[in-house]
Design brief:
alpha/beta; 5 strands; globular
């Protein structure tokens, strides 16, 4: 069973993204949602996800702080990341952080979220 961490501080957005991800998967997934990077980092000590979906503008430490933390350790540096943000990050190369896809909140759809999750998880197999 695949494990996905969703880090998003907007409750409604988090529910929409989670629903799209669950519908996209042919098999059930373990989907854990977090409202900040600190609780997500603490959860990494218990379980490593197959995918992280990350908002950049979070309450407290931002998504870039979490990305830096992930790259600090060999096991977490390999986790693929999908960034879901209102920031325009399309001009930045974030491959160093193992970012596979960047989705713009203003233009993404449930199907684009689903497609990104399926594509990244399929590539990781």
């Amino acid at each position: 069973m695949k494990t996905i961490f969703l880090i998003e501080d907007d409750q409604i957005m988090s529910e929409c993204i989670a629903r799209a991800i669950r519908k996209s998967q042919s098999e059930p997934v373990e989907l854990y949602t977090f409202t900040n990077g600190i609780t997500a980092i603490q959860a990494l000590n218990k379980k490593l996800p197959d995918l992280i979906c990350l908002d950049i503008l979070l309450s407290g430490p931002d998504g870039f702080s979490l990305l830096n933390e992930l790259t600090s350790y060999n096991d977490t540096a390999k986790i693929p990341v999908i960034i879901i943000s209102s920031l325009d990050l399309s001009h930045q190369d974030l491959s160093y952080y193992n970012v596979k896809t960047i989705l713009q909140k203003e233009t993404m759809t449930p199907s684009s979220i689903s497609e990104a999750a399926v594509e990244v998880l399929d590539r990781a197999e």
